[in-house]
Amino acid sequence: xxxxxxxxxxxxxxxxxxxxxxxxxxxxxxxxxxxxxxxxxxxxxxxxxxxxxxxxxxxxxxxxxxxxxxxxxxxxxxxxxxxxxxxxxxxxxxxxxxxxxxxxxxxxxxxxxxxxxxxxxxxxxxxxxxxxxxxxxxxxxxxxxxxxxxxxxxxxxxxxxxxxxxxxxxxxxxxxxxxxxxxxxxxxxxxxxxxxxxxxxxxxxxxxxxxxxxxxxxxxxxxxxxxxxxxxxxxxxxxxxxxxxxxxxxxxxxxxxxxxx
Amino acid sequence: xxxxxxxxxxxxxxxxxxxxxxxxxxxxxxxxxxxxxxxxxxxxxxxxxxxxxxxxxxxxxxxxxxxxxxxxxxxxxxxxxxxxxxxxxxxxxxxxxxxxxxxxxxxxxxxxxxxxxxxxxxxxxxxxxxxxxxxxxxxxxxxxxxxxxxxxxxxxxxxxxxxxxxxxxxxxxxxxxxxxxxxxxxxxxxxxxxxxxxxxxxxxxxxxxxxxxxxxxxxxxxxxxxxxxxxxxxxxxxxxxxxxxxxxxxxxxxxxxxxxxxxxxxxxxxxxxxxxxxxxxxxxxxxxxxxxxxxxxxxxxxxxxxxxxxxxxxxxxxxxxxxxxxxxxxxxxxxxxxxxxxxxxxxxxxxxxxxxxxxxxxxxxxxxxxxxxxxxxxxxxxxxxxxxxxxxxxxxxxxxxxxxxxxxxxxxxxxxxxxxxxxxxxxxxxxxxxxxxxxxx
Lengths: 261, 441
Ligand SMILES: Nc1ncnc2c1ncn2[C@@H]1O[C@H](COP(=O)(O)OP(=O)(O)O)[C@@H](O)[C@H]1O
Ligand SMILES: [Mg+2]
Prior knowledge:
The complex is a heterodimer of chains A (261) and B (441).
Chain A (H helix, E strand, L loop, with lengths): L1 E10 L2 E11 L4 E5 L6 H9 L5 E9 L2 E2 L5 H6 L2 E4 L6 E5 H15 L7 H15 L9 E2 L5 H15 L3 E5 L7 H14 L5 E6 L12 E6 L2 E6 L2 H9 L2 H13 L7
Parallel strand pairs in A: 3-10, 3-11, 6-9, 9-10
Antiparallel strand pairs in A: 1-2, 1-4, 4-5, 7-8, 11-12
Helix pairs in contact in A: 4-5, 5-6
Chain B lengths: L6 E2 L2 H11 L8 H17 L1 E2 L12 H4 L27 E5 L2 E2 L13 E5 H6 L3 H8 L7 H8 L5 E5 L9 E8 L5 E11 L4 E11 L2 E11 L4 E8 L2 E14 L4 E9 L1 E12 L5 E10 L4 E10 L5 E10 L4 E10 L6 E11 L5 E10 L4 E10 L3 H8 L5 H17 L5 H12 L11
Helix pairs in contact in B: 1-2, 2-6, 7-8, 8-9
């Protein structure tokens, strides 16, 4: 579904991604871990099409198209969804209007009829209940005055409504208490299916107790320096990232991160 | 700076042209001819101010002063307005073409008893004396557009609401200004007198065709505990120069609210002056506008708090694209006796292009000590993070921009009723966005 080769990206002339290789197939759940500042959010934003990050080298194929050629909105319509680490507040646009505009944009792209206000409300109420979001948030401006937890749940709500093929969750676990973490994880597990792929970006392993990944990758200084199964997350939890720093040279040349196992 | 360099010459030509064009009607009172004569004299004497004049710093009147507007427009052709998308209206309507009442396009039958709407020239023939003090009042003798309106006084409406009449509907006033056969000016004066405890809501729409100067003035006398609301919108006026001025006097316990709305007007000067001439009054002045190309929107508000315990709230928001310019100059004057005044003012501008410009000037003069006055102004651009957020959810970039602009202006119009009207006004402000999505460098 997603095949990334030697991806390099810079922002304001600083190279942040320094040759990322990754392959994600339908049905898989990948976790990308790594210390703060290693480039995880940059990676997620590059996949979503954020223009302030310049891709300087490499290739990204998504379902047989060159992803880098697509605009952010085309990527979304093709099924890519990014749950942001820091969702933006938009005063004056209600959550309901935001979501309905998004859903209808995607439906239009796919040649489907727009949903009317009534059907939309029905759909969204059902999803809100599943994710445990207060219905009052529907008529509030997007993320304006939302608590940290509400923002994260709101991202998961958008994901549930927009029904993506490839979902990338950027630190969706940070700032959540254990209950919130559980509902977010449930939201993700519910959309887990054979034709959908999920990339979970986190720097703690605790979310991975609830969303069991098929693969774990370590992003360090703009490169994937280690890949493995879910046990890698446990090792990182125990040993931290310090060992990577020392062994960086040998690790990155000795493994072939794009082909886990 | 000498007084002369603050003026543009050509004034004598204007005065002479108007003297020839305006015919005195035998049925009109003598004092009307005097007002006209004094208007001509003021134009002759003061002419048009140049930009050196404090009040006209941001708006040049050179093109108007030297333009073909000293002649008056002919009767006009209503056929030139067939493509105009008028606002939704389902109550009484009064339509004026170049200031003249069009009976066939008006419907005043649904007005309740106690509300009278008629052409000003008719009123001047009948019980003219009750109009005299309002029409004779001169607050700013040097004001060029006031002088022009006085020099030509006669066209417009006289609207009266008797005490205790609560009209729940909306009176729709359509001002059509047609320069189809030759360019020129139309000068209108609307006088509104609302009695004690009465209620009146007005929606005014102005549409221009071809190269015109529309000079429209409103005078409101708002009685004790009365409630007056007005929404005014300026539709298709791509070649129009507009002056739109209002003077409002509020008595004890009254409320006056005004919503200014424009999109697609070449040049407009919007002036409103409200005197809170009684206790416990409230004034609400709101404005939302969109300008593009080389359009120019100049807003001047003055609120005179002369009595205690009054509140006022001003909220203006402009969206400026292309090389357009938006001006907001808001004066709040709190007189010594006006204790416990609460006056709020805010003006926000959204620049969609680097070449657009917003000028904001709050002017607070406070002579009472127990008052609360706040003002704030912002000039900003669309939030790129918000645009990306929307795009990442599938919404294309032009629509994302349009949604964000809509969100910015919508708040100002929140209290406009009914909802269909409000939605239409928001749409008018944002419909130009999708066409020119990419900001000009
Ligand atoms: N928009 C940006 N402008 C400048 N520097 C950035 C920007 N985004 C990220 N960076 C820098 O890139 C590096 C990686 O950041 P990020 O991708 O957010 O890391 P992570 O998500 O792993 O914590 C950091 O050094 C950060 O300062
Ligand atoms: Mg991050």
